[in-house]
Amino acid sequence: MTAYDVVQAARQDKAYTTRELINGVVTDFQELHGDRQFGDDSAIIGGIGWLDELAVTVIATDKGHDLTTRMATHFGSPEPWGYRKAQRLMQQAAKFNRPIVTLINTPGAYPGKEAEAHGQGAAIADLLLLASQLPVPILSILIGEGGSGGALALAFGDQVWMTDQSMYAVLSPEGFASILWKDSKQAANAAEGMQLTPECFLAAGVADKIIPDTGAKFAADLRQQIKPTLLALRQLDSAALVAQRAARFRKF
Q1: Tally of domains within the chain
Q2: What residues does 32 pair with on adjacent strands?
Q3: Is residue 186 part of a domain?
Q4: SS3 labels along 211-232
Q5: Does 129 reside within a domain?
Q6: In angstroms, rounded to a whole number, what is the distance separating the alpha carbons of residues 27 and 111?
């Protein structure tokens, strides 16, 4: 696949909804709502579930699956109260010593007037600061689009995985082409220059692992790989875990 093929695959509808993926990865998922300040953002689904005997906090972006839910989630673009909901759930996970799994598929944070007025940038920055200091394992998995700071806010993990049909970029290739060449039709060339393939991110150390998206079987396959990783990360004491996470991101 070319870099732009990967971009297009990342944007396509998946064989599963976000909720189906969550319920396939963990059992007895209990969703939690709201940021306790402003409201509840349906673009971010968060709650608690079980990996056998291990309780985990799961936080995922949701693009919706029909017109109503896609409009409600802004096609997977969270608002400040969504990032603050994620922050609340991460703080709760730290309090009860639960590892965190984030599932990311977003074109970026919602750029609307109301979102900006309610501190979109500050919400993302606060979430990044919190994630950098959490004493519990964080596993971040890009399952589709990973757009700019809106994706990075949920991808500050001890390990970052990507599917073979996912991308991660500071902006879209169309936006890059519009800036560089004043022509969004040059998006394919921009994607190549931005090296938007999982293999490039793996080589650069941005991603730690590439996982095949096996469609309907993906949740079960992912579950098998998540548990041993979280158990291994839990063997580190909290100070070592935080130091290792900081060192990982300082490389960039």
Answers
A1: 1
A2: 46
A3: no
A4: ECCCHHHHHHHHHHHHHHHHHH
A5: yes
A6: 34
What are 217-230's pLDDT values in tens digits? 999 999 999 999 99
User: Tokens 């969270």, residue?
Assistant: 78
CB atoms near residue 98 (< 10 Å): 21
Phi and psi, residue 122, nearest 5°: -65, -35
Tens-place pLDDT, residues 87-127: 999 999 999 999 999 999 999 999 999 989 989 999 999 99
Closest to 48 in 3D by CA, of 75, 30, 66: 30
SS3 124: helix
What residues have CB less than 8 Å from 130, skipping those under 6 apart? 87, 90, 91
CATH number at residue 70: 3.90.226.10
Residues in the chain: 252
**Quick check: 57 and 100 in contact, CB under 8 A?**
yes
One-letter amino acid at 123 equals A
Residue 61 and residue 78: Cα distance in Å, rounded? Answer: 8
